[in-house]
Specification:
The protein has 505 residues and is α/β, with parallel strands linked by helices. The chain has 20 helices and 12 strands. The longest helix is centred in the N-terminal third of the chain and has 22 residues. The protein starts with 22 loop residues before the first helix and ends with a helix. The structure holds pyridoxal-5'-phosphate and ligand LJ64HWYM. Pathway: Amino-acid biosynthesis; L-threonine biosynthesis; L-threonine from L-aspartate: step 5/5.
Length: 505
Amino acid sequence: MRTLQQPTLRSGARRGVFTPCSRNMQRILATAAHADIRREAMLRVPLEKAHTFNAKFVPFTDIQTSNTSSEFYSLDDVVYRSRDGGLLDVHHDMKALSQYGPEYWRALFDARVGTTAWPFGSGVWSKKEWVLPGLSDDDIVSMFEGNSNLFWAERFGKEALGMTDLWVKQCGNSHTGSFKDLGMTVLVSQVNRIRKLKPGSITAVGCASTGDTSAALSAYCAAAGIPSIVFLPADKISLAQLVQPIANGALVLSIDTDFDGCMRLIKQVTAETPIYLANSMNSLRLEGQKTAAIEILQQFDWQVPDWVIIPGGNLGNIYAFYKGFKMCKELGLVDKMPRLVCAQAQNANPLYQAFHKAQGVSQIKESYQAVKAKTTFASAIQIGDPVSIDRAIMALQDANGIVEEASEEELMDAAARADRTGMFNCPHTGVALAALLKLRERQIIGPNDRTVVVSTAHGLKFAQSKVAYHSKSVPNMTCQFANPPVQVKEDLGAVMDAIKAKFSL
Ligand SMILES: Cc1ncc(COP(=O)(O)O)c(C=O)c1O
Ligand SMILES: N[C@@H](CCOP(=O)(O)O)C(=O)O
């Protein structure tokens, strides 16, 4: 049987220096890779059956009800809502994709891992046919995002949870330090295309943000030379997050409200101006984010984990993961879905409240109500009126899902405890880890269940809260895993005393 060939030529390698491939070389390699894919496809699919892959916006209600209404939009249209005001979804021609068979897709995706060929070295664009198949490679704005490591949490699993098969998907190990890069490469690439196709149609790209979306938006726009605008809730995001869009040259509006207030404003502004909406209400973002789920399957050699735990705020990501897993199942790459857990901070928990009230996911929609989110260390998920609530409900209902919550102390303790086993978690990952601790305690998750916790941001973005925890300066919190630095004079005796005290020498 023929195997897919991976291009091996890397520019600079022959000269003995390390340089990334030039754009030109990357294009040559990409063309070679494309040619391979086309040749392979021809071998496998009778010509008369061959389809062109394509994708379009359809009303999300069509996805929910498996109906096909006549309403659809080109991805080149500037549109965020369906005629009845509902959400949209990017719909792929699944029939065309299914012509190629699961082995073809598995081999193709696997062959692209680690390549420098433009744009397939990106974990997102390595799945281009499933993301934005109609986009020209020249329009792609990518930092070779994705392909994040899956950390085997061996010590934390064993010591804290009695688990053998616990993994943390490190989506925060990324260009701007969060999973948002996965979605933003797709959205900004599509904007890049639209601006070329229809000059003057998009002046700038804007978002409301709790810090990570704005960082990703401003970086990708800066790389493409596209102006960006970010609406931030004043004094509610970390310093590291605030400085990112400032450094990348975005127009930064620090607004005296919370995230939900910023979201209301950006919706109005993008409805009335040629400013394009970059929040996950825009379903283009979710096409990129869903590739993290496909990557998890790939990293397990296409074995499906039992559980995937995802921190939830605006609730786009839980649906994105669901969609990634679902596409793999529908196209036969795997034979089942993992169970999904959405983990919320107790101080911003509208979905958890509905789940608790409805005692499960089946009646969750009827019990749902937006809330006023309170301050939480998990500041990026301090959201009370999530835009993607309908998407999240569908994902949880179809994936036999669960919603769990974590108090401030629980999330900070869980993050700190896991840090002691080699991680460096953001508070949102702490929410997911705390949810796991509770689900293990109640024996809902078993000791040998293969479980993936999705780490959504890099801990370094949240150094301030870690410093507060480790210096035990958080009011009403014991900070049981704090490890404060020991102040010592420049004196050998004092240094020896500190070491002896620690190691009982
Ligand atoms: C670090 C981090 N974790 C989790 C989330 C939650 O993702 P979503 O809003 O898609 O639910 C966000 C953003 O909302 C985030 O920035
Ligand atoms: N945590 C997000 C909140 C906005 O979510 P989005 O996915 O809708 O952009 C952020 O970092 O801003």
